[in-house]
Every structure is written in C-alpha cells, then in structure tokens.
Design goal:
With 523 residues, the protein is of the alpha/beta class. Helix content is 35%, strand content 21%. The protein has a seven-stranded mixed β-sheet, sandwiched between helices. 52% of the residues are buried.
C-alpha cells in the first residue's frame, strides 16, 4: 500500500494521519491512503498567485499551447501505466479506462492546438468593432483578457484523468494557475498525472498544484479574480453557491451537477434500419460504459408508443448479455461501481424508481451480484438495469432523481409535443440525443429542447459506424447544461475560455484601439 502525496510549492507532501483509504472496487483490497492534514494550503495559494500566474500570463497563447501539447505527449508516453491505475482504483474495464485517459490526453492536445492558432497575442477579440458615435475617430471593441487570479478545480470520482485535464487545459491556456482537488476515492490516477508533469517540469512553477484529500480552508482564501470549477453532486454544488467567497467576494463559480439525460427514438427509426441499430448501440453503451458513472449517461429513453414493447425487448436482450465482473478480464463488458457508498446509493436509487406509479423492472436490479473473476462476495457490482414506466406523466422520481449507475428507464410518447414536455421535466440536462432523419421533427425538437440542454446529439443513419455517441464530451463543443445540470459551461473551444477571462469594452481613438487587436488571420 502506498501513501498518496499532495503537490504544493514544487514539493510532494504526504498528509498526516488519519488517512482515508483507496480501494480496488473489484476486490475491496486497500490500495493506497491519503490525507491533506498538515499540508500548507496558504503556501499553495501564495505559490499559485506569485509564481504560477505571472509566469503563465507572460506567455502568449501560442507558447501556452505548446506547453499543453508537451503535457499531452508526456501523458501519452505513460498511457499504459495510467490505464492500469484506472482499472485498479477506478474499477474500469480497459475500454472504459481509455475513455478517461485518452480523453484527458486528447483534450490537452486540442487546447494546445487552439493556442497555436490563437498565436502570439494574450487576449481575445470578442465580436466586431463598433463606431458608437457620429465621429469615425471614436471606436469601440470588446476584448477578453485573462483574469489575474487562480483556478481551483474540484473534480468528481468518475473521471480522475479527464476531469483534471479538461479543466486545467482551458485555465492554463488562459493564463491561470491551477490547484486541483480530485475525489479522494479515485485520486491515485490524478496524483500520478501530476507526478509525471512535475517530474518533467513541463509547466512553469506554480502552474499546477494538487490536494490529495480535503480542500480544507482553501475556498476561504479565494477572491474576485479567482475561478472555482466544480463537478459533482447538486447537494455539494448548492453549498458552494452559498459559500461566502462566492456570495460576498464574487468568486466566479462553474458547476456541473446532476443530469437526467434523454435518448429519443424518432418515429422513422424502424426496426432493422441503420438508424435503429445506432440508437440501440448508443443507448446500451451509455448505460454500461464506466458502469453508468458518467454525467452524460442516458437515464431516460423515449420511444414512440407503438414501438415500446419491441424496443424494450431489444434493449433488455442486449443489456442482459453484458458480462459484469473484474475489469481486467477481457470477457467482462462492465466493471464495478467505484465505491461501497456508490453501490449503496445505486441500489437505493433503483428501489426508489421501482416504487414509482407504473414502473416495472425489465432486467437487472439492486440485488447482490457476483462479479466474474472477482473474489466471492467482494466487489461493488450491480447489473445493468432497465426499468419501464407505463405512466410517465404521473411519475416523479424518474424525471427528478438521477441514479448514478447503469440504470435507465424506458417510456413511450404519443406525439412530439408530448415528448418535448416529458423531456423537459428533467429540469435541464447536459445532453439529449434524438435519433431521426426527419428534418422537420429535428428542427422542431431543437427549438423545444435546446433551451433545456447544453448539447443536443442528432443521431442519423448517415453516422452509422462513425458516431462517438451522446455520452462523449468533445473539447470543441460545449459541456455543461442549464437548471439541474448546474448551469455551467466548460470546453467548447474558445467559448470555454470565457470562464477564465474577463470581457472588457475598449473605446478610444480608432488607430490606438485597433493596434491592440490580433493580427489579420487570427481570431
């Protein structure tokens, strides 16, 4: 067993006991322990402000982008080691581990390439300039300039690699140093990533620091130029929204929380068609990938009423064939949940959904299950679970409570107007997916569902064999969603940079104002 270390002021530090254990969720073996007791959080804050921030902001976008590309390459060189840690501490199959680790590497590279394209400037032009008065000499522009603070990132247990790197890549490109705090239960992978980047001295001193445990009083130290980005439960998000640093000192807060993501089969998705097969494949993958522990996983499935029995039977068959067990076994299609607490929460969540009016179980369930290749009676395993709701208009929990595991509910809709109302009962989501090649229907639902989602995935027969699926958050597109999803905005290429920059209107003598702008050909 090892002791994980925080990384503060260029020094790796093991916190004092008592330390929290980290488990292998397939065997319940204790793998590591960690604590931040005795770690100087004031030193972390000061080092970020005095060293990391100034060093990053001296660099152009192109130079920062080159740092991100180098970081991506360093992690790629250690890819096999990182995948192994993801499997052992996260309970991920190799395929699921790739989803996290490769996503982290690709996001660093994508933002590194964006920095190269932005060039030798240190601010961004926002829209077109304007002549605000009759005088052509007076000119106005809007610019995004880097904030002069630090970024604190609190990440969830399910994506210790991608969560760290997707937030950090954008902050670094904008010139903000990062203090990252991974979820303790799966922190080993994040700790190793920080060790690799620190060992290679890729980033300026103070650009990246790590808290391998509690965040302590760090949030009390934040001020109006700082950014706090959080991924996790809506309960914790609500506490952060009420934190004095946010309410009184104006710390910019970005939240990604719960999401009851919907998958919709259009009436034209007939049995045997490429469109229908794409729908089935994407739904099954998103229910079982990472054991359903994805913020973008499909939780609600809507199909035309005449097709309900057929679609339910096809999904039940495919989900029932998924083999659950030790993630290092090649024949295993789904590993365990990440923690014992997560297992208990998922079991309770299934029972809560089953108590809804008109809900019945088609496959899976909360009962204990032995994982293939795992020690008898050990591991945090649950079967892929599909429920059917025959009275979706009367149900409440299926539209309001996310069960963060391999659990989804299928239900029927009569008409697109009914469908839109049902989907919107989710209260806002990260992503909804519509499988239809009916352009009229697609147009109608984009307008009806767009205000309630951060992203809409339009599944088409033309995408067969080329679709990443709705559950894949790409660095070029917005990740976040309104309402229940937290009203956050991350990634999205240049758009994601707005979180770490300040929009500033510049007005004055036109030649002077225009001299500030990027050279022709640059954004």
């Amino acid at each position: 067993m090892i002791t994980l270390r925080s990384y503060v002021a260029d020094t790796f530090i093991a916190g004092a006991p008592p330390r929290a254990p980290l488990y292998n969720p397939a065997t319940e073996e204790v793998l590591a322990e960690t604590s931040t007791i005795g770690v100087d959080l004031g030193a972390a804050e000061a080092h970020a402000r005095t060293c990391g921030g100034p060093a990053l902001r001296e660099l152009s976008f192109a130079a920062r982008g080159q740092l991100l590309i180098a970081a991506s390459q360093a992690l790629h060189a250690a890819r096999d080691e990182l995948l192994a840690l993801s499997m052992d501490n996260g309970g991920n199959t190799r395929s699921d581990a790739k989803f996290d680790v490769d996503g982290a590497i690709a996001t660093l590279a994508a933002y590194g390439e964006l920095g190269q394209r932005l060039g030798e400037t240190r601010w961004l032009r926002d829209g077109e300039g304007v002549q605000p008065t009759r005088s052509p000499k007076l000119w106005g522009e809007h610019l995004f300039v880097p904030r002069q603070g630090i970024a604190v990132h609190i990440n969830a247990f399910n994506f210790p690699a991608w969560g760290l790197c997707e937030k950090a890549a954008v902050a670094w490109l904008c010139g903000l140093p990062v203090i990252t705090k991974p979820a303790t239960s799966t922190a080993w992978l994040a700790c190793r990533i920080v060790e690799i980047l620190a060992e290679r001295k890729i980033l300026p001193s103070g650009s990246l620091q790590l808290l391998a445990g509690s965040v302590g009083d760090l949030l009390d130290r934040l001020g109006p130029q700082d950014v706090l980005a959080f991924t996790g439960s809506s309960e914790t998000a609500e506490k952060l929204r009420r934190h004095e640093a946010v309410v009184r000192r104006g710390v910019r807060l970005n939240v990604e929380a719960d999401s009851l993501n919907a998958a919709i089969l259009g009436p034209d998705g007939q049995s045997g068609s490429e469109l229908y097969d794409l729908f089935l494949s994407d739904v099954v993958r998103d229910i079982t990938q990472k054991a359903g522990q994805k913020c973008t996983a499909i939780r609600r499935i809507f199909v035309p009423a005449p097709r309900l029995a057929e679609v339910a039977a096809d999904l039940t068959e495919r989900l029932g064939a998924v083999r659950v067990g030790h993630p290092r076994r090649e024949e295993v299609g789904m590993g365990p949940l990440s923690t014992a607490a997560q297992l208990q929460a998922v079991r309770e969540g299934i029972r809560r959904l089953e108590a809804e009016p008109g809900v019945r179980r088609l496959t899976g369930g909360p009962e204990p299950v032995s994982g293939l290749g795992a020690p008898e009676g050990k591991g945090y395993f649950v079967r892929p679970t599909l429920l059917q709701c025959d009275r979706p208009l009367e149900a409440t929990a299926i539209h309001e409570q996310e069960v963060f595991g391999p659990v989804a509910t299928i239900m029927a809709y009569e008409a697109p107007t009914d469908l839109a109302a049902l989907v919107r009962r989710g209260g806002g989501g990260l992503v909804a997916s519509l499988y239809s090649d009916d352009r009229s229907l697609v147009s109608e639902l984009v307008l009806a569902l767009g205000p309630y989602h951060g992203r809409l995935f339009l599944g088409s027969a033309r995408l067969a064999g080329q679709s990443p699926g709705p559950g894949t958050a790409l660095p070029q597109l917005n990740h976040g969603g309104p309402g229940r999803a937290g009203d956050g905005h991350e990634l999205g290429g240049v758009r994601g940079m707005e979180l770490y920059m300040q929009r500033c209107a510049i007005m004055g003598y036109r030649p002077v104002v225009e001299s500030l702008l990027p050279r022709p050909g640059q954004p």
